[in-house]
Specification:
Layout lengths: L27 E4 L7 E4 L3 E7 L9 E6 L10 E10 L5 E9 L6 E7 L2 E4 L12 E7 L6 E9 L10 E11 L9 H4 L14 H11 L15 E2 L14 H13 L4 E6 L15 H16 L3 E6 L4 E2 L12 E2 L12 H15 L3 E6 L16 H18 L4 E3 L9 H8 L13
């Protein structure tokens, strides 16, 4: 939704696989689970025993951490420990002893906490081994100068079976050095003949391999869009508030040179989230969309549209630390004063301006997340009654465009299954997920 701003974090880490290594004097021990000062708590889908004999690598205690997936929800899967704030200084690694008591099917991540700040670190699962203790070393990011807590979490989407998964954690410490890697000599023995170095191959063979692995021309590639959400280079989204075709052209050209075939463009009626929603586009927007269509065509790029239905702010449901709450009641088919007809005409106007450059249309985003147990909630039948006229509007202008209903969040895919039960497949011909 337009009021929600994307957050991006990029972190490059070096992961070191090590056998179990002992705690050394220079380490700052966060918890050895022998009755220390760290306080641990777990989310609803995790269970911990923070002084478990079974989970101990050294001494008499360790933390047993069991994830209880319900087969649907990917959340509620973290454990958090808080301790007195420390200055990290020369401590460059977070080190812990880990025993994976089960199949490692996906991500087990880690964050350093400092007050309200959360700093992403490397992942635990890529160093852990099933059925044996391993000392995991995670480089501490430069921005982490102090710490008063740690959070460990499962990617629940990778552990969606109903089988519990256990990890044993012991001897969590900050260290100046990473755990020394030990290589199994048997595992290091080469298997099969040694491969030739590419640069030492005959020139003709090098050229042949380069040609065989070269990227196809844009017209022959089939791949989804892989651009960031594209923002318009006109109005409030351009650097100076004017139509900036030069910036728009440069961005599209770079996307094409990277091998992308589509861009993803989010558009919505002007004034959404306010009391003055306008279904008539400004002249500036009309010119901007036409330019975007022209320049994308010249660059060999198609356009995927996410068209958001009108909504209003719902300030009474705002919560600290959360995105602004909204209500889609103005678009609800059970609302006698809904604006579905106006929205459908707006859809046709938008598609007409894009002049055949649109590859797909997604009608809304995570609309099920706005359900709060009141009259404004959306059932599968409600959304289908909204979707049918919107799809018809798309078909009238662009009959070959793929159309999807709203993109559901990855933890709520059951909403799409409910739509399928009430005839979604007879109306739309694509499904979008976030």
């Amino acid at each position: 939704m337009p009021l929600m701003f994307p957050k991006s974090r990029t972190l490059c880490v070096v992961l070191v696989l090590a056998s179990w290594q002992p705690v050394v004097a220079a380490d700052h021990v966060i918890d050895d689970f022998e009755g220390g000062g760290t306080t641990w708590r777990s989310d609803n889908a995790s269970v911990i025993e923070s002084n478990s004999n079974t989970a101990a690598k050294a001494g008499t205690g360790g933390m047993m951490w069991r994830f209880k997936p319900d087969g649907v929800n990917q959340y509620g899967n973290s454990v958090e420990g808080r301790f007195d704030r420390i200055v990290l200084g020369e401590k460059k690694f977070l080190v812990m002893d880990v025993f994976a008591n089960g199949a490692l099917r996906g991500r087990i991540g880690c964050q350093i906490l400092n007050g309200e700040a959360e700093i992403n670190m490397g992942d635990i699962h890529s160093q852990a081994l099933e059925g044996q203790w391993v000392t995991v070393s995670l480089p501490i990011p430069e921005e982490a100068s102090e710490a008063d807590g740690l959070r460990l979490f499962f990617d629940g989407s990778a552990y969606l079976t109903t089988e519990p998964f256990e990890c044993y954690i012991d001897n969590i410490r900050f260290s100046e050095t990473e755990a020394a890697a030990e290589i199994n000599p048997a595992a290091a023995e080469p298997v099969g003949p040694r491969a030739e170095v590419f640069s030492q191959l005959p020139l003709e063979q090098q050229m042949s391999l380069r040609l065989r692995s070269a990227a196809k021309p844009l017209s022959e590639r089939v791949n989804p869009y892989s651009t960031p959400m594209y923002y318009p280079q006109w109005g409030g989204s351009s650097p100076d508030g004017t139509q900036r075709s030069d910036i728009q052209e440069a961005i599209l050209r770079e996307f094409a040179e990277l091998g992308m075939t589509k861009i993803h463009f989010n558009w919505y009626p002007e004034g959404v989230g306010t009391e003055t929603i306008n279904f008539t586009m400004s002249e500036q927007s009309k010119v901007g969309i036409k330019e975007l269509a022209r320049l994308s065509k010249e660059a060999g790029l198609k356009i995927g549209l996410r068209l958001d239905p009108p909504y209003e702010r719902a300030t009474e449901f705002d919560a600290p630390g959360k995105d602004p709450a909204v209500s889609f009641w103005i678009s609800h088919p059970r609302n006698p004063e809904n604006k579905i007809k106006d929205f459908c005409q707006w859809i046709k106007d938008v598609l007409t301006l894009f002049d055949g450059q649109v590859d797909y249309v997604i009608l809304g985003d995570e609309m099920g997340d706005s359900n709060r147990g009141g009259k404004e909630d959306w059932s599968a039948e409600d959304y289908m009654n909204f979707l049918k006229p919107c799809v018809q509007a798309v078909r009238e202008v662009a009959p070959d465009v793929k159309v999807s209903g709203y993109a559901a969040s990855s933890s709520r895919f059951k909403e799409i299954l409910e739509l399928v039960k009430v005839g979604y497949g007879n109306v739309a011909n694509a499904v979008a997920f976030n």
